[in-house]
Design brief:
Blueprint lengths: L1 H26 L7 H19 L2 H25 L4 H20 L22 H6 L4 H19 L1 H11 L1 H6 L4 H27 L11 H11 L4 H20 L9 H21 L1 H7 L13
Helix pairs in contact: 1-6, 1-9, 1-10, 1-11, 2-3, 2-4, 2-9, 2-10, 3-4, 3-9, 6-7, 10-11, 10-12, 11-12
């Protein structure tokens, strides 16, 4: 059971990074469905940079920068040229699938050293320590980011401005807030966070490159934002829940669960659909924190 719980903490980390980035973008009124593609580009950029330089820190930065660059394309096409946000996001995902496969072709089968584990002498040897205190820096950085995002959105002036723009960009513009700039920065942050989540997969979760290695995690991260009703704390809890379901495919049969492996492999996606159906049935819960202007283009001249 200790191994299972420790693996859940690790498996939740890419969901947390990608989910928090998408949450911030959506609270600003931007619907970016390109998370899956940005994670893949972040994963291959992080792996290629680490493989070439031997520096894991540079690899993480490269993953974040590459995905932020993809988010920059989204900013230009959707926020400046006012193209449909959903269509642009889907195009990013398709582009990310193809580009990552092409760029990563020379690295298939190659490996790099995994991110080092952080530990506290004696404490990390306890049962609780083996579950919570023996992970790499990105695990704890993701949890710290969740706290920072929650405080930013609820306590800071610019966080309140971002939320206001997500609800009514015209009113925000009338109050003097730079709507396009704030939405652009939120989108770039979302891209960088998705890139770190992708880099985590290729540098820590499985320190190697494999085509389409995100395996739908970007889509689950988008669903997590809705599942969490756009609240960072709930998103972290949801990430652990979905990670637990994901890990069942690896531990279920060892526990003697008499279920076909195919059912266990599809369990995370089935759980995503079921959770979204349950949430969508409660209209009051869905609308409690949902940005009213999500996906709506903004024209400053209006």
């Amino acid at each position: 059971m200790e191994a299972f719980l420790a693996s859940v903490v690790i498996a939740a980390t890419p969901f947390i990074w990608a989910g928090l980035g998408e949450l911030v973008a959506e609270r600003a009124g931007v619907l970016n469905l390109g998370v899956e593609g940005m994670m893949l580009v972040g994963a291959v950029a992080g792996f290629a940079t680490t493989f070439a330089t031997g520096s894991q820190a540079l690899g993480i930065l490269a993953g974040a920068a590459a995905s932020a660059a993809m988010a920059g394309v989204f900013v230009v096409v959707s926020l400046l040229l006012l193209a449909n946000q959903a269509a642009t996001g889907l195009a990013l995902t398709i582009f990310g699938l193809g580009a990552s496969g092409l760029i990563g072709q020379p690295y298939v089968g190659q490996t790099v050293a995994a991110l080092p584990k952080l530990s506290i002498p004696l404490v990390s040897e306890t049962a609780l320590g083996r579950i919570l205190l023996n992970h790499d820096v990105l695990v704890y950085a993701g949890l710290a980011l969740a706290v920072a995002v929650a405080l930013f959105l609820s306590r800071s002036r610019w966080g309140l401005a971002l939320r206001a723009i997500g609800d009514n960009p015209d009113a925000g513009h009338a109050l003097g807030y730079p709507v396009i700039l704030i939405r652009s920065l939120a989108t770039l942050f979302g891209g960088a966070a998705a890139g770190v989540g992708g880099a985590y997969l290729s540098l820590a979760y499985t320190p190697m490159w494999g085509e389409n290695m995100t395996a739908g995690r970007g889509w689950i991260a988008i669903a997590l934002v809705v599942f969490a009703t756009w609240r960072p704390g709930r998103l972290v809890a949801g990430a652990f829940l979905f990670a637990g379901v994901t890990q069942l495919q690896f531990f279920g049969q060892d526990w003697g669960i008499a279920v076909a492996s195919q059912w266990l492999a599809m369990a995370p996606y089935l759980a995503t659909v079921v959770a979204l159906v349950i949430i969508s049935r409660d209209e009051a819960l869905t609308k409690a924190n949902a940005p009213a202007a999500i996906g709506r283009p903004f024209r400053a001249e209006r």
